[in-house]
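Hello forum,

I keep getting stuck at the same step: I have a sequence, I want structure tokens, and every attempt I make locally crashes halfway through. Rather than fight my setup again tonight, could one of you with a working pipeline run this one for me? It's a single chain of 347 residues.
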Amino acid sequence: MKLPATPSRRSLFAAALAPAVWTTDKAGSRPPLTGSGEHQYEVHHDWGQLPARIAYGNTHGVCVDSQGLVYIHHTVNAASQSDDTVVVFDPRGRFVRSWGGEFRGGAHGLALRREGGEEFLYFCDTRRAIVAKYSLRGERVWEFGYPEQSPAYQPAADGKRPRYSPTNLAIASTGDIYVADGYGSSFVNVYDSRGRWKFTFGGKGKEPGRLDCPHGIAIDRRSGSERVLVADRTNRRLQYFALDGTHLGFAAEGAVKLPCHFDHRGGTLLVPDLEARVTLLDGADNLIAHLGEDPSGTWGELRKQPRERFPAGRFICPHAACFDSQGNIFVVEWVEAGRVTKLKRIV
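Reply #2:
Ran it on my machine without issues. Output:
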């Protein structure tokens, strides 16, 4: 992705080291706050007790299961002693287990779905260009790769196939799986619950219904029916589609910059935005708040710096986020050192 002009080193570090707004009491410092009213949170960076043998690469995915366990999907740092890309914590941030060496270097999209009395994890691997379904403990159920049956992915006259690199997925109540080819050809490919291709929609462009890096995707049920919501990242917009791929319209115009992913709790939609903020929208997609926003514009260079350069209380490159059952928010960021932040809801 093309990044903005690189700021001077002096301006970058000045912004990174600028003091955060802290609240204090007799016990000393407290975490910085973000948001307001019923959407106010304490910001707890570097959440989770990561074992010494694991070093985060880019932290790309996060979800929470019905027991409150938090799953982090990351690419693995070169210095890590472990290839495990899936790290699991309990609700207090204590390490539970890790696995997933096969996703090293390609760990990206992560979704969780309850099916009957069991929960499953769904993954997008951008390096191997696959979508996979696993149990919560790391047993593979199935995986599938290139959408060879789709007319949109047939070889050109020179024999070259369109690029395919899936970034995220969403699952409808029917079991159909909607896979966003965000880093490939900007289509959405739809499969049945067994991974059999059904149809394709979208494709690169700026027109309504066309996409440019459909990085995130969700089945939005807040209106009482199901619609496909796409984070059309490079076009800097959100688009709605019917389940059959028919374009329905746009949403939250002007409220997002580089939207990456979605989660929702009740009528509130959570949108991590790569340009240094996390956005909350109401049931009508009106802006509620931008959380942890850093307006300095230094995120493109700051994401490569050591974590001690990261500004407290502010985000750099939010890549995925989710609610837990208490309304707290977990945010993972596209930074070379990896970062997991818990926004603890103030009740």
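Helices lie at 9-16, 299-302. If your local run keeps crashing, start a new thread with the error log.
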